[in-house]
Design a protein that fits this description.
- There is one protein chain.
- This protein is mostly beta strands and about 230 residues long.
- It has two helices and eleven strands.
- The chain has a single domain, classed as Lipocalin, CATH 2.40.128.110.
- About 15% of the residues lie in helices and about 45% in strands.
- The longest helix has 24 residues.
- The protein is elongated.
- It starts with a helix and ends with a strand.
Length: about 230
């Protein structure tokens, strides 16, 4: 009888202990160092007012290469009735983008999915299997329309942007609108931070729905990439 009771306690308490441990290991959302200010309407000029200052110089033209960063996913799962938020992360990010006349004219980013890791190796193996890493080892984002970056005029400035593009996971593309913040951290260095809501089925990915664990059908892809010009 005692063995049966202990077994029942393990089944009941185990998932709760696991969920509690996950609360401390879940990574915080990636965030810009200098959040973009809220858009405000410029006041109208009155007769006799001093002339408005000339706008600051535009972001330098050129090709920018991704030199570092972090990317990954955030998803909710239910383990034996306990809600858990899981985050996977990797620093294996590459890509480049081009600016001209204060506008982002082209861009692409690739993430090595095989290196995305959580705190549990078995979960990471499952992730690689269901997103088809063997056949499609990268997730990619390719910009599909130019984006104005007029707010990036001086070092330390930041601007909120929406990046239209194509997100490809598991070899299956999907048009997306990415909310992001671009920061000019140095004359020739930028950081772009953002997130993309994702429905796994849109990319042919079946979220696990098993006896003891169920992964939500939607999640969030998060990224923060650093790029240098030249």
């Amino acid at each position: 009888m005692g063995v049966v009771v202990l077994a029942l306690l393990a089944l009941f308490v185990g998932p709760r202990l696991y969920a509690a441990s996950q609360e401390g290991s879940t990574a915080a959302p990636l965030a810009p160092a200098n959040p973009a200010p809220a858009a405000t309407e410029a006041p109208s000029a009155s007769p006799g007012d001093a002339a408005a200052p000339a706008p600051a110089a535009a972001l330098a033209d050129g090709t920018w290469t991704v030199t570092g960063g972090t990317a990954g996913y955030r998803v909710d799962e239910v383990l034996n009735g306990q809600d858990v938020t899981v985050t996977g992360r990797t620093d294996q990010v590459s890509g480049s983008f081009t600016t001209a006349g204060g506008t982002l004219t082209a861009g692409d980013v690739a993430v090595d999915l095989a290196s995305v890791a959580t705190d549990i190796a078995a979960r990471d193996d499952q992730f690689r299997r269901i997103v088809g890493v063997e056949e499609n080892p990268q997730a990619t984002f390719v910009l599909t329309a130019p984006v104005a970056l007029g707010g990036l005029a001086e070092v330390g400035s930041s601007v909120a942007v929406t990046l239209p593009g194509t997100l490809t996971i598991n070899g299956q593309p999907r048009d997306v609108q990415v909310a992001a913040t671009a920061e000019l951290t140095a004359a020739d260095s930028t950081t772009v931070t953002g997130s993309i809501p994702v429905t796994w089925a849109d990319h042919g990915v079946d979220a696990p729905d098993l006896a003891i664990v169920k992964v939500e059908d939607t999640g969030t892809l998060e990224f923060q990439v650093v790029a240098a010009r030249g």
